């Protein structure tokens, strides 16, 4: 029997191996889109959606996330990624989008309101706030949920992303 060794934390050197291990899950079984924006040969940002909750009743609701390279912020990368993702999610009959964002009333040295401002500009509205729910940078932060309705609340069934795409490198 071949026993696996356990490593308690990952390191930068592990990133390529982790990517190789995870890639088949994203490519073959993803129910929601993962999109990448490129600038030349560099990745400028990525965005993805995932199930809001595991239960089937919530199949048409998704949580969205976007990450943009620091020197590409304040441009169109995040907006283009979200617009493309929303177009795909509409084809999947997703109706409600949610963003979960660390938040403080006043900005500090580690957390700005950029994500809240970005989501508001993309048409999201405040849906709820969990007080002192997240802990990072040695501090407690509130978490706000923002919501955007993108489709009709009809009887259509959710369509997995893997059913929409024909090939891995489809451009959206």
TrEMBL record:
N-acetyltransferase domain: residues covered:
1-151
Spell out the PROSITE patterns in the cross-references.
GNAT
Q: Which Pfam families does this one have? A: Acetyltransf_4
Quote the protein name from its UniProt record. Answer: GNAT family N-acetyltransferase
Q: Which SUPFAM superfamilies match?
A: Acyl-CoA N-acyltransferases (Nat)
The answer to whether the entry has keyword Oxidoreductase is no
Q: Which domain of life is it from?
A: Bacteria
InterPro entries for this protein:
Acyl_CoA_acyltransferase, GNAT_dom
Q: Write out the GO MF terms.
A: acyltransferase activity, transferring groups other than amino-acyl groups
Q: Which UniProt keywords apply?
A: Acyltransferase, Transferase
